[in-house]
């Protein structure tokens, strides 16, 4: 993406009808470490890659429980993600208090999207630099949504965001038609396989990934490291290459800094997809 | 006066005249029970102005959204205000236009918050409410008082209904009452209330809510019997001048 004279201000349109600041915010999502989500009729699994900056530090928290029936995985500026998680938790708890009922995830997602849109139309604000995979249950079943900085949201059967997410997406595209009827454990297995795709040959172990599950009769919770490691071992996928990883993204490290050596400058704006 | 309040504020000396101190036009008991297909609710059509039975065509039960039925006793104008609040609530719920809708449990809890918050401001909505409904096969029946006391039960009543109707219901209610048995039971309760509650009138409606929706009967009256021998010559044998 090249710098130009229309990209300083989020409230400045380009002659081609684009808001570059918003597109740059979407770039920040692509730089973050990968997060994936997939759902069946009754369960949703979220997974993410957790790389610590150095051996001395702990890794960043990228999956947040929002309520018993809703959880979110983020990619991009984790600080922005934390703030939005706090907003979501607040909305859920206020709704629960007034109506003694869980907030339908579809409504929360719309509120989140409207909040993101505000930041694309105020000269004194900037768009949130984080993409959210929102997993939740409501009356009509299990749902997985993707909220992006542009203020758009989409519902998915399975999706992946962040760096090297294309590899995971390719894997999920091959398998997604079976997900609706998958058992909970098969779903987790598929999530781990998808995470492995983003690791480009690196060994998958529970210390570098996080997996969370929510489903009918199962509150949102993050699986502990032992359970995850057992599942990795049980499914015998350590070191196994199931297929060549897709072409590596031009993206560099895991930091959320906006990188200039990125993807398309022409074509449809990402938020229009 | 040091500070000036806006005219519609509830603070300051001018505001006291605007707070609810006592009710003016009131409805009497509401009785409701769960039956096989949903909820049955009964209320008479009277609006009393103090001790005068002034209004005889007041509908004290209304449908809320697709799944709920609200009955109220107490101040009629406050009931109308509550209906306005719920109108807005249901409207916004419908405007989402997604697969979700507020069920009776949600409406009941919303009303609890409403009543309790008004009570905390010393400006209550002077009503006792009965909220019943059925959603996805689950029946729900609850009540909220003007001070925010709320609970659910298989049968509920307001006002005099608590003292006269609930004992009958405790004896004779059981799970999976048929529609006819439910109506018979409610009529038995309403008859006792008619005999003994001076604010009751002999013109009532029975409302039913099931998965299909809400229907409310045309107003009708109960058969009463006044020829008990004990009531003939009531003053015979009475001593004294009062």
TrEMBL record, chain A:
InterPro entries found in the cross-reference section: Ntn_hydrolases_N (IPR029055), Proteasome_alpha (IPR050115), Proteasome_alpha-type (IPR023332), Proteasome_alpha1 (IPR035144), Proteasome_asu_N (IPR000426), Proteasome_sua/b (IPR001353)
Assigned GO CC terms: cytoplasm; nucleus; proteasome core complex, alpha-subunit complex
Record's keyword terms, sorted: Cytoplasm, Nucleus, Proteasome
Domain Proteasome alpha-type subunits: 6-28
Annotated spans, Disordered: 243-273
Keyword Nucleus: yes
GO biological process: ubiquitin-dependent protein catabolic process
Chief place of localization: cytoplasm
Keyword Nucleus in record: yes
Compartments it resides in: Cytoplasm; Nucleus
Entries under SMART domains matching the protein: Proteasome_A_N (SM00948)
SUPFAM superfamilies: N-terminal nucleophile aminohydrolases (Ntn hydrolases)
Pfam families: Proteasome (PF00227), Proteasome_A_N (PF10584)
Role of this protein: The proteasome is a multicatalytic proteinase complex which is characterized by its ability to cleave peptides with Arg, Phe, Tyr, Leu, and Glu adjacent to the leaving group at neutral or slightly basic pH.
Quaternary organization: Component of the 20S core complex of the 26S proteasome. The 26S proteasome is composed of a core protease (CP), known as the 20S proteasome, capped at one or both ends by the 19S regulatory particle (RP/PA700). The 20S proteasome core is composed of 28 subunits that are arranged in four stacked rings, resulting in a barrel-shaped structure. The two end rings are each formed by seven alpha subunits, and the two central rings are each formed by seven beta subunits. The catalytic chamber with the active sites is on the inside of the barrel. The 20S proteasome core is composed of 28 subunits that are arranged in four stacked rings, resulting in a barrel-shaped structure. The two end rings are each formed by seven alpha subunits, and the two central rings are each formed by seven beta subunits.
Similarity annotation: Belongs to the peptidase T1A family.
Record-linked PANTHER family: PROTEASOME SUBUNIT ALPHA/BETA
Name of the protein in its database record: Proteasome subunit alpha type
Organism this protein belongs to: Hibiscus trionum (Flower of an hour)
TrEMBL record, chain B:
Pfam families: Proteasome (PF00227)
GO CC entries: cytoplasm; nucleus; proteasome core complex, beta-subunit complex
GO biological process: proteolysis involved in protein catabolic process
Compartment list: Cytoplasm; Nucleus
SUPFAM superfamilies: N-terminal nucleophile aminohydrolases (Ntn hydrolases)
Keywords from the UniProt entry: Cytoplasm, Nucleus, Proteasome
Entry keyword Transmembrane helix: no
InterPro entries assigned to the protein according to its UniProt record, in alphabetical order: Ntn_hydrolases_N (IPR029055), Proteasome_alpha (IPR050115), Proteasome_beta4 (IPR016295), Proteasome_bsu_CS (IPR016050), Proteasome_sua/b (IPR001353), Proteasome_suB-type (IPR023333)
PANTHER family in UniProt: PROTEASOME SUBUNIT ALPHA/BETA
Function: Non-catalytic component of the proteasome.
Subunit composition and interactions: Component of the 20S core complex of the 26S proteasome. The 26S proteasome is composed of a core protease (CP), known as the 20S proteasome, capped at one or both ends by the 19S regulatory particle (RP/PA700). The 20S proteasome core is composed of 28 subunits that are arranged in four stacked rings, resulting in a barrel-shaped structure. The two end rings are each formed by seven alpha subunits, and the two central rings are each formed by seven beta subunits. The catalytic chamber with the active sites is on the inside of the barrel.
Family: Belongs to the peptidase T1B family.
The protein, known as: Proteasome subunit beta
Species in which this protein is naturally found: Hibiscus trionum (Flower of an hour)
